[in-house]
From TrEMBL:
Native source organism of the sequence: Nocardiopsis exhalans
Pfam family, one: MFS_3
Major localization class: membrane
Membrane topology, from the record: Multi-pass membrane protein
CDD domains, sorted: MFS_MefA_like
Record-given protein name: MFS transporter
Protein origin, superkingdom: Bacteria
Record keyword Secreted present: no
Amino acid sequence: MGRNFNRFWAGSLSSNLGDGMMLVALPLVAAMLTNDPLLVAGLTAVRFLPWLMIGLFAGVVVDRVDRVRLMVLTNLGRGGALVVLALLIFTGHASIWVLYAVMFTVMVCEVFYDLAGRAMLPDIAPAGAIDRANSRLVGGQTVTQQFAGGPIAGFLFAVAAFLPLAVNAGAYVLGALVLLGLPLAVRRPKRPEGEAAGAAEKKPEGRPVRSVLADVREGLVFVFRGSSLGPIMGFNMVVNMAFMAQSAVLVLLVREHFGVPAVLYGVFIGTSAVGALLGASTVGLIVARLGRFRTELVLVPLAGCACLLFGLAPNAYVAAAAWMVIGYVMTSSNIVLIGAIQLIVPGIQMGRVMACVQMFGAGFGVFGALLGGLLGRVELYYVPVAAGAVVLVGLLLSARALSRVTGQADESEAAQVAEAERAARETDAEQAAKSREKDPDQGERG
């Protein structure tokens, strides 16, 4: 995959370790501070609220600035916020509202970090390897975030509530330092062919600089009028709302409904990591055999059925098995869908399009989290059952749009591979010609 990708991957691994610790530690702190399902679900709502509030603006920023520098600064910001929370917990001054404030701050930074990473990936991955690159990122994320970060946070929390947050902050700082070695060539979006580097920054005298709102509008027009991505945004929104509703009350489902102790909470949710790692390892083979569209037709219904099984599970062991299946199908499906979008979107608009994807997915997950909290007040297991039903209905309404987008991605990938092979042949021919010029007798000896 190349040195640049490996460095990018290493920085992501460290940051993902921090994410895994945070996503286990903060719900445990919330459950320590309150047992109200709505207040606990509110933490998940706050987690995704920044995507709804600043997602489109962040996409414009990502398309304008040095993406590596942006990722470094936001990682340092995340680490600083968690150090503050660790100190407040240690001194006994933490509250659910402080927890909300820290989660919001961390996630504002994560909005910029994630968008910059996703927008930069097509420039780092070799031609024809976008699914493999996404699979490695997701596989590494699974190992560090769920196999390592989640269980470590659970055990450290059992010792002292502030410990996982302090270690988490260190992981973010390390991830920031690793990214500093990436070259300038991949830090900014590639310009369309024929446009010189820096041309966008040179404005004629008397002409106003392009506004942020104009860039946001351009991105939205591309998504909903200039491409076939509009219905996919709706599908992404519905599915993510369903899963956010389930995730919002997960800590209560696991601890109260299934009776799993706090020290094993990280281990329980880590079962999805087993499925996610299997999904990241095998999705490339499945796509190669079935194609992107038929892969989605298999995975999404399986996800809906797994949610139903999780809600109706008779004990924690069956629930853990269902959670593992959910991890497998959701990871595989996301790799296919994100890779398809990355293949059909121009690099200069990648940040804004990815912002739309995240805003309509994670951003509207805020409402799913609140709905999950309200439904959880009635009965906790109703939440995953309702989520499974919503996923199945969402697929029925979006199948045609999925077929169109995945077909365009297949065509784009084939064209990229053909172009890379042509460029390689031309390079080989040039090198052979130079060799013959240096040694005119080489051709005769050959």
